[in-house]
Each structure stands twice: as C-alpha cells, then as structure tokens.
C-alpha cells in the first residue's frame, strides 16, 4: 500500500511543518510520494533530499536580508520573496540544496501550482534537481499580488493554495491509500472570505478564471478540511496539526519567532510519533525512500 505525505502551505506557518518533517526524517519515516503546496512545496523538497534542519536554518539566517523577503524586494523586483535570491542563489551558494540525493531518492515529489488562465490546479512531478525544479517550487509559493506570475513550460502560474490548498484527494487518486497530512492551522479553523479581493480583482483583472477561484477559495478550503476530517475518521489518513493558532504571520524578520514555530512542529511530531508509527506500520512503502 503506497504511503503519501501531504503538506499544506501557509507561508512561514510552514516552519511548523518543517519541524514535523525533521522529526520524521530523524526517525527514518519513509513515504512513496510527497505533495507540497506553496510553503509546503518550498520546505518539503528537503525531505526528498534528506536535509533535515535546512528549512529553519536558511530562514533564520536570511530573516533580515532584504533580497530574501522584504517590501524593498517587492518594490524593486515585483516579488516579496526574492525570486532569484531565495530560489536560485540561496540553494546554490549559501545553503546548498542536495540535487544528487534528491534525484537518487525514488520518492515521487509533486508540487501544486495554479494556472491563472484556466483557474485550475496544476500538479507537477519533480524528480530532477536544479533550477527548473526550483522554478516550479517558486511558482507554487508565489502568492497573488505579492508575486509576479511565473511563466513556466508554456503556463502562467501562481500559488497552488489558490486552487488546491490540501491535495489529499489528488494523492488518493494517484494511488496513495494511506496518507499523512500536515496542516498549518489548528483543528476547527474556518477560513473566511478574503478581505483583499478588491485588490486581487485589480491585480489579476486579465485572468477572470483565477479571480473567481480566489473569490471561492474559502469555500474550497473549508470543504477540504472537512474531507480531511472525514478521511481521518475513516482511518486512512493521519493528521498532524498545530494545537493552537501559530504565533507567526505570513512573513517574519524575527529568527526567534521562526524558531518557536519550528519547535512547536517538532514537539507536536514527537508527541504524536508513537501513533504515527502505529498508523504506518501496516503499510510499508513500496520503495526505499531514505
């Protein structure tokens, strides 16, 4: 039975997921496939490259670097998170991404993006390291209004969370029958309509399909959390979620704040580890992923 890992986004709330993943990696928890959305894609790639600790390390190191994330970057480049620095310079010069291990590990790694023309999700399988994969991850994490549209492989792409925030159903359709879902909002969270829709409508006025998807995003998200809960009760899905709302915004320039959210993820994973291992023990992965 194939085992999957599903990683929600949430910008720097994703450091909670990074803490969870590092504990799982340290205990040799293996998956046949991983799907990441937005920050889930940006941080989850380190699972396939076997680089526990990398996500929290570079986020803290560059917390106050304007080229990494800043209003200055948004004004100068059109991207709040610097497209070139964050997604190409950091992983090749400062905190090296292990492309060789990423490629050797047989775990299938999917990222979710949103096609702004069709308003539909795009699921891309990344099995090769390097700049092309880095751009797919960038596209998955490119928040509307705060990022330029990423033109890649003939498509115009933005943040995958706009169209499929929690792709558990996708993984099930791909044949992953036993899934671990890492959420970045606590149980009972209900998403409300986006108060910034007037700005979104102006910024993306040339792409009515994605504007409509954004207007309905809260409905999609709440239906997905209900589906996750249903699958959790059915026994085929194990959910790891923060115990309380995470004390961090979409962005942060405070390394201590980042570390705190990461530590909450670690503590949550460590507390749930016996149940997680029990959930997975009867569904050994079909390939060796670590």
Our Rg estimate from Cα atoms comes to 18 Å
Order of helices and strands: EHEHHHHHEEHEEHEHHHEH
Average pLDDT metric: 96
- The number of helices is 12
pLDDT under 50 segments (min length 5)? Answer: 285-290
Description:
The structure is a single chain. By secondary structure, the chain is an alpha/beta fold. The chain is 45% helix and 16% strand. It has helices at 14-26, 39-48, 54-61, 71-77, 83-94, 99-104, 131-140, 168-173, 197-203, 208-215, 217-234, 255-280; strands at residues 2-7, 33-37, 108-115, 120-126, 150-152, 155-159, 176-182, 237-240. Strands 1, 2, 3, 4, 5, 6, 7 and 8 form an eight-stranded mixed sheet that branches. Helix 1 (14-26) packs across helix 12 and helix 3 (54-61) runs antiparallel to helix 12. The relative contact order is 0.20.
What is the gist of this entry?
The chain is an alpha/beta fold and 290 residues long. Helix content is 45%, strand content 16%. It has 12 helices and 8 strands.
Descriptive terms for the model:
alpha/beta; 12 helices; 8-stranded mixed β-sheet; 290 residues; disordered C terminus; single chain
What order do the helices and strands come in, and which of them pair?
Elements: E1 2-7, H1 14-26, E2 33-37, H2 39-48, H3 54-61, H4 71-77, H5 83-94, H6 99-104, E3 108-115, E4 120-126, H7 131-140, E5 150-152, E6 155-159, H8 168-173, E7 176-182, H9 197-203, H10 208-215, H11 217-234, E8 237-240, H12 255-280
Parallel strand pairs: 1-2, 1-7, 2-3, 7-8
Antiparallel strand pairs: 3-4, 3-6, 5-6
Helix pairs in contact: 1-2, 1-12, 3-12
